[in-house]
Amino acid sequence: MVDDGAVNPQRILVVGAGHVGLYAALRLSSKLRRGEAEVIVVDPQPHMTYQPFLPEVSAGNISPRHSVVPLRRELPRCHVLAGHVTRIEHARRVAYVQPIIGPAREVAYDQIIVAPGSVSRTLPIPGLREQAIGFKTIGEAIYLRNKVLERLDVAATTTDKATRAAALTFVFIGGGYAGIEALAELEDMARDALRYYPELDADEMHWVLVEATQRILPEVDPDMGAYTVKELLRRRLDIRLGTRLESCVGGLVRLSDGDSFQADTIVWTAGVKPHPMVRDTDLPLDEKGRIRCLATLQVVDADGQVVPGAWSAGDTAAVPDLTKEPGALCGPSAQHAVRQAARLAGNLVGVLRGRAPVEYRHKYAGSVASLGLHKGVAQVYGIKLKGFPAWFMHRTYHLSRIPSVNRKVRVVIDWTLALFFRREVVALGELHDPRESFTEVTPPVPG
């Protein structure tokens, strides 16, 4: 933003450009008057990933580029810094930013929005670090798609039964929305791909869901979760409820029910936790490492006093849920993050102009999930849908939520083309190590 005569325009620093950061910056850009404030957005990625579309990206229903929102294009009135915020000293109103290349720099601010998002909540399970992959980033989604298709090639080519069985075994840990959608969409894609593999049969594939509790999709009523299990079982998926992953060293999956088998593909989708960066701040945290907040999205200390100039929302914030019993907090969902971002931006602008902030109050609208092409489950405002209607609602809802007309149009084009052409089921594994073929033919130079 350009100073248009204001003596001391406020500097607003937005840490993270996920659902909270991007939507808050967009709202600030539209509400702030010219010269009233400068908005700086810091994120290591040049884009925001619309995570609800990751399962469809993995399945090839949406181009990866169309599920991300370029920051510099969508935030022309903001200053975008590509780097990591490594520490925040709010007492001094300073954040330390590590650029992609070069020395760290200090960035001073007047107001700060701390929203770095979340990371996968992992456990100290032997072999997990070496063998598994998460499902939170666009890179993980692309890698997983290539991995599944590559394993079909391995299975179709090998003459070794053990190698073939391991290649066709896919294990997903965690029965929340991320795990269920990733499992269902990728199995649907692999089943489609088998038409090009006469050497393989669908019954040879072993898709396993491991969930520690006795139900999946805890966000919906038990009957809807039971319906989802029934549908997955009808597709001959292996659903293990009340079961934990105990080890996966060398790809040998050992489960708490006593079963063990070799698997080349292991996906961890068992929840999230606040980004560890928030521990490197002087902001007050709760026992789970989340930033303490009021319902106004203002950071508050242990005595209930507002910390001036500090705001937070989304997965890293402990925000009271005023629609539930006292003490309840808003869950780590994209639905809450987007709506909190809008309220936070409105409150921040209001405070700058001398108005009292308004509390965030939003009743959870419900949940929608895709179970593959033309299959889904939904529970919205008490209305329960299954099959095609739920799948259609899932697509309609997320199309309405992804930022920018540009991305909406591109996603619709992807979906429309899929009505007339079969989806692409080719692996591009070289994307993950593009220099290998070059280095193999380039001789080393001594010294």
Could you describe the 3D structure shown?
- This protein is 31% helix and 24% strand.
- With 447 residues, the chain is α/β, with parallel strands linked by helices.
- Helix 1 (19-31) packs parallel to helix 9 and helix 5 (138-157) packs antiparallel against helix 6.
- The longest helix has 20 residues, at 138-157.
The poorly predicted ranges are: 1-6
Q: How many strands in all?
A: 25
As a percent range, the share of helical residues equals: 25-40%
Please indicate the percent range of residues in DSSP E strands (runs of 2 or more). 15-25%
Biggest β-sheet: count, sense, barrel? 8 strands, mixed
Strands of the largest sheet, in order across it? 7-6-5-2-1-8-21-20
- How does the helix and strand content classify structurally? alpha/beta
Rg calculated over all Cα atoms: 23 Å
Instruction: Report the average pLDDT across residues.
Output: 92
Shape: globular
What is the straight-line distance between the termini? 51 Å
How many helix segments? 12
